[in-house]
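INFO batch 0412 | record 1 of 1 | parsing
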Amino acid sequence: MAESATPPVAKSPPHNIDALVVGGSSFSGRQLVQELCAEGQQVRVFDLHRHPDLPAQAEFVGGDMTDLSQITAACRGVTTVYHYAALLPFGRSKRVPDSELVRVNVGGTQNIVAACRTCGVRRLIYISSTGAVFSGKPVVAGDETMPYPEVSNDQYSHTKKLAEQAVLAANGDELKTCALRPNGIWGAGETHHFPKVLMMAQMGMAGIMFGVEARTDWTHRKNLAHAAKLANACLKTQPELVAGQAYFITDDDRHHVQEFTLRMVRPLGFGSVRVQLPGVGMVLTAAMFEGLTWLTKPVLNRRPFLAFADVRKVVQDNHFSVAKAREQLGYRPVVSTAEGVAECVEYFRQLGYEGHVEQPGRAWWLAICPGMALLAAVVLWPDSLVGRAVLDLLSPWLELVHMQCLLVAACLSHVVQALVVGMRAHGLRMSTAGWFGQTLVLGFPSSRLFHRQIGAPGLVAALWSLGSFLIPLAVLLWWVSRQSAFVYV
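INFO prediction complete | emitting tokens
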């Protein structure tokens, strides 16, 4: 009797795509795509949307990794998958539910693992995070022997932990996997940390340092891309050493977070004043934002501008060792901190950020500041020696009520000019706090310099400043005259 025929085993398609970058439209993913394409590799990008900066030669497949059929189709014919994709809860108009973070970051990663197995992908490199092992407690030169925490620093870190565990557990004979753990990915064009940094700089708070002894490290996106390529090569040549392993990948350079960001904004003219405060100051600030977020949750449902989870990374040590990556992957940073900072400074300058505040001549300060102080002293203390002397001197022309009108009109003029200049400065990516503060004190001289710096006609500034003073003065004098007429009647 003839043996029954066994069903044919499904064969995966030939591997004609060198790399699939899941999340290749992201800030860090694009860097890897650009480098792989520059090396002549056949690259496919899988993401929700195609970013305009992706190389033209990169094949783009639109889709969602939470859809198993879509990610499986993208993995066909692929040799190596680089998994950069993640749902980030930061910088969004609405708070991301914890369940959604799990669905995307964990469920999506599990789908990628399943798709790799189905399609015969040989290597899977997961871009994890130091958050996978960060519990919110200080870390000093942490290494890969650190255990996974029972309680993560935040829900996002928790999902990165679960996703990393799924990838490393999938390592086997057919599919070789490893995970890379960057700490704070940065570079020109980064959109999570730097918009906050620039906004704080505009508000005059770039030089405020909390927890000045704390140190952390960062990961430039070019260094991460370099490490990803090294990991792929090592999974191919020495899988017995690298497969199933996790590696911390940083710039191997430690700084205080705000000292690090200050190096980027100070060349632009921001952060000229430096103030050192204890870490508890940032904790209290976070408590304020957390409280406001809780109170407004029914209406806004936003993530706090500054959360406790963020503070724990800043006010205490949070840095890691790259010794294992150096020894096993041959990793060395290809971009130094100084090079990356210079790149960011030039990028911010091209965007138009300018923190230098041009100051009027010393004569303006000597005339306006003592003059306003003297006027206030006369109005507030008319019976004092100075008040009586000034009122007697001006009595042929001005009475106390006129001096009061002058002071109110001058203060209103300075406030209005400062608000207008400050709002325009913020919109033009200039020093909001610097221009607002200087104009609040000096009024017209500062407003004139601001309008000159932005290219507005000087006559416009002069007329605006004069009008902001004369109009309220005229209204006040009219009101005083009406009151006086009423009294005489």
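INFO post-check: The chain has two domains: 17-190+216-252+317-351, 362-484.
INFO record closed
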